[in-house]
Design goal:
Blueprint lengths: L7 H5 L2 E5 L6 H14 L3 E4 L13 E6 L8 H13 L4 E5 L2 H5 L3 H14 L4 E5 L7 H13 L4 E3 L12 H11 L4 E5 L5 H10 L3 E4 L2 H6 L4
Parallel strand pairs: 1-2, 1-8, 2-3, 3-4, 4-5, 5-6, 6-7, 7-8
Helix pairs in contact: 3-5, 5-6, 6-7
Catalytic activity: 2-deoxy-D-ribose 5-phosphate = D-glyceraldehyde 3-phosphate + acetaldehyde
Protein name: Deoxyribose-phosphate aldolase
EC number: 4.1.2.4
Length: 221
């Protein structure tokens, strides 16, 4: 966990600069990429329908699978993942089936994550658990399932669930459960520099942000 605030450049390198609004247009995606380059973010995260895109090095391309509800079959998520990889996605952010989590069917959670993992060999896999909708026990169970299934990150939220987005408590718990073996991505409702820095201090190693420019403007150089 971080013990002091990150510089603007350090924080930028943790950001997946995100545009997942369903009405987002290709021209808006192009503008997102240009802004990401100017800000120095790690990646852009866009809807799979917007792929493929061309980005300059070292910017990476992430997309979402089973988004935003997670309530589709594992084989559908796997097929969506395979197509996204074919279209150039380097990182996959998949949404779990929340019904499995709420019923503590963590073996089923593991199985669907494993199906997606098999569809994106060599790519970074992040598992969105919608932490605000889960109990602490369910958060831990989902994180442990993600680790068993070979994920690279666990991620707090889609940013679309009515329960809310990332919290410091959830990030701390997720980090305690899987770090440093897996990364932790905080996403959903992070709109200022202080909140972003608090997530990093709690153990986040990646941030999903749509307000990246405003957040970075509030950081020390």
């Amino acid at each position: 966990m971080s013990t002091s605030p990150l510089s603007r450049a350090e924080l930028a390198h943790l950001i997946d600069h995100t545009l997942l609004a369903p009405e987002a247009t290709p021209s808006q995606v192009e503008a997102l990429i240009e802004e990401a380059v100017a800000l120095g973010t790690y990646s852009v995260c866009i809807s799979p329908s917007q792929l493929p895109v061309t980005v300059p090095d070292p910017l990476h391309v992430a997309t979402v699978v089973g988004f935003p509800s997670g309530a589709v079959k594992a084989e559908v998520k796997a097929a969506e993942t395979a197509r996204a990889v074919k279209d150039g996605a380097e990182e996959i952010d998949m949404v779990i089936n929340l019904a499995f989590a709420k019923e503590h069917k963590f073996a089923d959670t593991e199985a669907e994550i494993a199906a997606v993992r098999a569809a994106c060999p060599g790519k970074v896999l992040k598992v969105i658990i919608e932490s605000a909708a889960l109990t602490d026990e369910e958060i831990v169970g989902c994180c442990e399932a993600a680790e068993r299934a070979g994920a690279d990150f666990v991620k707090t939220s889609t940013g679309f669930h009515k329960a809310g987005g990332a919290s410091v408590h959830a990030v701390e718990l997720m980090s305690k459960t899987v770090a440093p073996r897996l990364g932790v991505k905080a996403s959903g409702g992070i709109r200022d520099a202080a909140t972003a820095q608090a997530m990093v201090a709690a153990g986040a190693t990646r941030l999903g942000l749509s307000a990246s420019a405003a957040i970075l403007a509030g950081c020390e150089e």
